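Limitations
The structure tokens in this dataset are predictions for the assembled complex, not deposited experimental models. Users should treat interface geometry with appropriate caution, especially where small molecules or nucleic acid strands are included. An illustrative entry is reproduced here so readers can see what is and is not provided.
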Amino acid sequence: SHFGSRAPKATTRSRPHRRRASLSPSMAQRVVIIGGGNSGIITAQEVVKQKGASVTIIQAEEFNEWYIASPYCLTRPETHSKHVGSMDKSKIKGVTYEFGVVTQLNPEDVVLKSGKSVPFDVLVLAVGFSMPIIKPALGQSWQERSLEVQAYGKAIKAAKTVVVVGSGPVGVEMVCDVKEVAPKDCRVVLVSRGAVLSGSSEKIQQKAEGVLKQQGVEVVQGELAGEAVASATRTTVNLKDGNSLEADVVLPCFTSGFQTGFLASVQGLTDERGRVVVNEFLQCAAQPKIFAVGCANLNEFSGIAKIEPQAKTVAANVKCALAGKPPAKKHKEGNSFMKAPPLQIMGHDTWAFMDPANLPPPVACCARIGFPCCPLPCCWCCCPPCCCGGPCQDPESRGLASFMTHTATPKLMNMRMHKGAGELAPAQMQM
Ligand SMILES: Cc1cc2nc3c(=O)[nH]c(=O)nc-3n(C[C@H](O)[C@H](O)[C@H](O)COP(=O)(O)OP(=O)(O)OC[C@H]3O[C@@H](n4cnc5c(N)ncnc54)[C@H](O)[C@@H]3O)c2cc1C
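Predicted assembly:
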């Protein structure tokens, strides 16, 4: 095997579509994308336009959940159905779908948990990161996911203590959503490993801490001992410093890494953090016919502003690969001014603020100037003037949270992706 000594052994199953030694020009080449999230969708939309490519997306779940809205759905489970849809509505024209969890990578095919082999000529890894309960578990059924969301929603509304672990953008949003719906006397704790929103500027961190304090969220410094486990029943949360918290609901809101465990046996494909090791063409350094989007060893945060340019780089290089040429498009970080999400939501009706330092310079300028230029007059049909909470300052307000989460994002996202997911409202946009 050209995957090296640790590569999985070839199985004895029959493989009707094994790659032939050379492909005739008329034969479509098989581009297989593992992952039907934003990374997979954007890549597929680009690659499917290319002549001579037959594109297959392998997707673990047979439903389409808009998990960006999870903090909202977990606290208002009655809205979950609006954020989930069948895959049928959101399938990309011309793309074939396979449902199942990939458990093994071989030199010329990937194997699903069911044992089914899916052969490829070019493979794109778009597997995303895991975040228990915030995102559906790999291979979970729609029914299981719905029941889980209902159970958490019910538990939060009856809880005496809710512990949210992780004070990044998702944790900070989640903890305020919990505060919005939990009983008045519920103790709501945010476990923070360092500063709240440590990836953002000090100014933003201070703003967030101020809002948390005002909302009565208790911030506890500490780090989880052991695995991130979500719970909707009473349990003990153990911290590394020996302290522990009793909680009725535990919501881990940090990622435990990319979902690349099945690649670990293939030598040189992933690094110690489980990120796919790529070259400047986003091609696996160890495997030229494998590319990665959204799960590579790049210093870019995970957001659509970063993923989309990665997908375009990969699509261009897949085109080269299909033509039998070496990759030509070097990856350049997209929206390089953006080092952290420019918009932070805290709950859906609590607070939101924009960080102009992470907005495109003209938008940042407009956002700072305030009414009558904020937003630009051409945007007034969707976004009325001065919706951001005040002139001549960084936009922040309760109204901004409400506007972005209930109005702007559902419209924007539904225009672009995940068309099949219910009515898509309300949701949120952070980045
Ligand atoms: C709560 C929350 C809010 C967010 N808000 C924003 C936002 O406002 N703006 C923004 O830009 N970004 C936001 N993000 C980040 C954004 O959602 C991600 O960056 C982006 O969606 C990642 O897309 P992806 O396709 O790489 O991964 P995913 O969406 O995780 O998709 C990966 C897919 O691969 C499938 N998969 C993985 N492993 C396998 C396997 N072995 N076999 C088969 N299938 C597999 C999974 O089932 C999954 O469907 C948010 C994230 C969260 C959690």
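Some entries come with short summary sentences. For this one: The chain has two domains: 29-135+257-322, 142-256+338-416.
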